[in-house]
Specification:
The structure holds 2 protein chains of 2 kinds.
Chain A: H1 2-40, E1 42-43, E2 51-52, H2 56-62, H3 65-97, H4 103-111, H5 118-129, H6 135-142, H7 159-167, H8 171-183, H9 187-195, H10 200-211, H11 213-228, H12 232-237, H13 249-258, H14 262-286, H15 293-298
Antiparallel strand pairs in A: 1-2
Chain B: H1 2-17, E1 33-39, H2 48-61, E2 66-72, H3 76-88, E3 95-98, H4 106-109, H5 117-120, H6 131-136, E4 138-139, E5 142-143, E6 146-152, E7 155-158, H7 159-164, H8 174-186, E8 190-192, H9 202-216, H10 220-223, H11 228-240, H12 255-263, E9 267-271, H13 277-283, H14 285-290, E10 291-294, E11 306-316, H15 322-335, H16 338-348, H17 366-377, E12 381-382, H18 385-388, H19 391-406, H20 411-422
Parallel strand pairs in B: 1-2, 8-9, 11-12
Antiparallel strand pairs in B: 3-11, 4-5, 6-11, 7-9, 7-10
Helix pairs in contact in B: 9-11, 11-20, 19-20
The chains are: A mainly alpha, B alpha/beta.
Chain lengths: ~300, ~425
């Protein structure tokens, strides 16, 4: 009887503590998601009443070459996050872990772009890539490589790589996560490895990386999630152009909204969520990640 | 224990309920009605200073009764998006500007906008507007927005650069135009400012429309994309983007870059409307003095026309509150009055579709006078793409144009891309 009462009391507390999260989750995620799915099945300009059109928005989307290109670009962004940004961050974090001269300065310097306005950074990169006064072409000219100078954001083969390169400025976010992770590894492991005759590369490969697995997976997950919802950099620097070459799903969705095609915008949103689920699942498979892997590694 | 439980429940309730009290409508104290106007007509350039001054004067004259609050959205496209989002959320701004076009005509079908039809019949308010512009603002016999600004977008050229290049007068036909372009290039000047960026590839869209008008005449847009006039105009655009006829950064450039090249004398020709007069007068006085306005060279059978349409309209939120309605109407009458319109026009160079008298002592800007003259001399006016095409087509213009140039598509393929955008 006493135990039953205690259980009931516990249940009340559990409900009290879960309730805010549940309400927030329902208000800001479940309800909008349901609303998104419902809107995606309609034709709606945002003003007139909604008109149910079934799956027409989805079939229109898949027959739209710009939308297909946007999916491809999103996947390229995700791949760049997974295979370029996080490995780069890892490399920097490993160097910083060795505490070379000025490591504190570099730690702050790498993180700095994350606290600067995205708009300001985008304008800065637009200036860097400018064919007339851009520092990149200027540098190439100084180095005697004038033949490589070009309109980086105005040519089909350079525009997307240029955006991706500019986005690496946010590498500091992952550097901080991975650096913090690397500090949690006990020094005794390294001392023992020195006695065993391990060199620096062996130490990183056989001690640091396995011990940081959880942090690496977390960083990869975050980086890919950020890449999938890529919008600001593309919108500010190229608005999806030229020739829609840099269009991504979020930008495609914004353009549909601007064109009063709310139903199609919602369908794009739904597909973006689905794509996100698939990519995350793929990432789990790639890393052979068990559901509790992150927790294990962090412990 | 019970006390603890009570505190927890209270905390949860506060946590959940508090956000509901955040923000909300601003209630003015003492019966003062606050009118919030989200707008891009703010800042230190263009229309901003005079509008801020007029609003401040209005607030002073109506102190304690009406207060107009300018909500700054310096970028025009962003301001438009704010308006659209609020309308979709049924939170119509008290007063706002928008572009009346095929995509926004739907605003009239809703009950969101204040119906001004009967009000315009009082005290000759309606008679003060240019009848043509007011006609465009009348849909199914209802007026729910008022014309605030007309677009007239002649070709601007730098007379000094033309003289230096040995081009005595602005080319009348395309052969002369291409010859003049070669002479300009020979002295290191890029012939035209172009752009594929921004929401509508503004400058290039206007060049295209000029040539479309020359091939298709006053009703060119009604001919439809399959008419040869469109393909021929596209062919000229392709050439304008090649052979050094425009700047290296034209692909992807926005209005800032496009106008900066003209103001820095990197380019000799440019297209924009009268609202840009204040900007060039302030930022490039030498170029401002050398600027001459003209019509585009004849490419087809028609010439001497201009691209012009109703660019900006103003509307207000529908309301059942008589005090609020009266306040909004007071401000509407004030901001669209002949006196305010004249002040705004003289200060910014804008062409305002309100009838007002110009006196000899009025200090009309010389470039603005050229605009008025260009409008008067035009053989006909052709609408800009924004006035006749839905937003999705307008958005695609710059992308299709850059596809034609970068992927070496034919003008016909460009037309196909534009048609696909409209489907």
């Amino acid at each position: 009887m006493k135990q039953k009462k205690r259980k009931q009391k516990n249940l009340i507390w559990i409900i009290i503590f879960i309730l805010p999260v549940l309400i927030l989750l329902t208000t800001f995620f479940v309800y909008p998601l349901i609303s998104l799915v419902v809107t995606s099945l309609t034709e709606w300009d945002g003003i007139s009443p909604m008109k149910f059109v079934g799956l027409r928005n989805y079939s229109d989307l898949f027959s739209n070459p710009i939308f297909r290109l946007s999916i491809k670009n999103n996947l390229i962004w995700a791949a760049s996050a997974a295979f370029l940004q996080v490995p780069l961050a890892l490399l920097i974090a490993l160097v910083l872990r060795r505490k070379p001269a000025g490591w504190k300065f570099f730690r702050s310097a790498f993180f700095l772009p994350n606290i600067i306005s995205l708009v300001a950074l985008a304008m800065l990169w637009r200036a860097i890539y400018n064919p007339y006064y851009g520092i990149l072409n200027g540098l190439l000219n100084v180095l005697g490589m004038e033949h490589l100078a070009r309109h980086w954001l105005g040519e089909l083969n350079t525009v997307l790589p240029s955006l991706i390169v500019s986005y690496q400025i946010y590498v500091g976010y992952f550097v901080i996560i991975l650096f913090a992770g690397s500090l949690s590894i006990s020094d005794t492991l390294y001392e023992a490895s020195v006695i065993d005759g391990a060199n620096v590369l062996q130490q990183e490969l056989y001690i640091t990386l396995p011990a940081m697995r959880g942090f690496i997976i977390s960083s990869e997950t975050l980086a890919v999630a950020f890449a999938l919802r890529q919008f600001e950099t593309t919108f500010l620097m190229t608005a999806g152009g030229p020739a829609n070459a840099t269009s991504v799903m979020a930008l495609f969705m914004q353009k549909r909204l601007a064109a009063f095609q709310n139903g199609m915008a919602a369908a794009t949103g739904v597909l973006l969520v689905i794509l996100g689920i698939f990519v995350m699942k793929g990432l789990q498979t790639l890393f052979g990640m068990r559901s509790d892997a992150v927790e294990d590694a962090q412990q | 224990m019970k006390k603890g439980l009570f505190v927890c429940i209270l905390a949860v309730l506060l946590f959940v309920v508090m956000p509901a009290f955040a923000g909300g409508t601003e209630e003015a104290a003492g019966g003062e009605v606050t009118i919030t106007w989200p707008t891009h007509w703010v800042g230190e350039q263009g229309t901003g200073p005079i509008v801020e001054k007029m609003v401040s004067e209005f607030n002073e004259a109506n102190a304690g009764e009406i207060k107009v609050v300018l909500e700054a959205h310096p970028e025009a496209d962003a301001a438009e998006e704010v308006i659209r989002t609020r309308l979709a959320a049924r939170q119509t701004p008290d007063f706002f500007l928008f572009k009346l076009g095929p995509s926004t005509r739907g605003y009239y079908d809703s009950n969101l906008l204040l119906d001004l039809t009967d009000e315009l019949k009082k005290d000759g308010w309606g008679a003060s507007f240019n009848p043509g512009a007011l006609g465009v603002s009348t849909i199914n016999g209802k007026v729910k927005s008022l014309p605030m600004e007309n677009a007239l977008t002649p070709v601007w050229y730098n007379k000094s650069l033309f003289d230096k290049a040995g081009v005595a007068e602005f080319p009348k036909d395309m052969n002369a135009f291409w010859a003049a372009a070669e002479k300009l290039k020979a002295i290191g000047v890029v012939p035209t400012s172009q752009m594929t960026g921004g929401a509508n590839a503004w400058t290039s869209m206007l060049w295209f429309t000029h040539f479309l008008g020359s091939y298709g005449g006053p009703n060119a847009w009604e001919l439809g994309w399959d008419d040869p006039a469109f393909e021929k105009a596209a062919a000229i655009m392709k050439r304008l983007y090649t052979d050094g006829n425009t700047t290296l950064d034209a692909i992807g450039a926005g209005p800032g870059e496009s106008s900066a090249h003209y103001m820095n004398e990197r380019t000799a020709m440019f297209i924009n409307g009268p609202w840009f007069v204040a900007n060039i007068r302030q930022n490039a006085p030498a170029v401002y003095k050398e600027t001459v306005l003209t019509s585009a060279p004849a490419a087809g059978d028609y010439s001497g026309h201009q691209v012009g349409w109703l660019l900006t309209s103003a509307a207000a939120a529908n309301t059942d509150d008589p005090a609020r309605k009266a306040a909004v109407l007071d401000f509407f009458r004030y901001i669209t009055s002949p006196e305010s319109s004249k002040r705004r026009s003289i200060e910014t160079g804008s062409l305002i579709p309100v009838q007002f008298e110009i006196n000899p002592e009025d200090n009309i800007d010389p470039l603005q006078q050229q605009f008025i003259q260009a409008g008067n001399n035009a053989t006909f006016l052709i609408d800009g793409i924004e006035a006749v095409m839905p937003v999705n087509v307008v958005q695609e213009f710059g992308q299709a144009l850059s596809s034609m140039v970068l992927q070496d598509l034919s003008p016909k393929e460009f037309i196909e891309l534009m048609k696909a955008a409209g489907n």
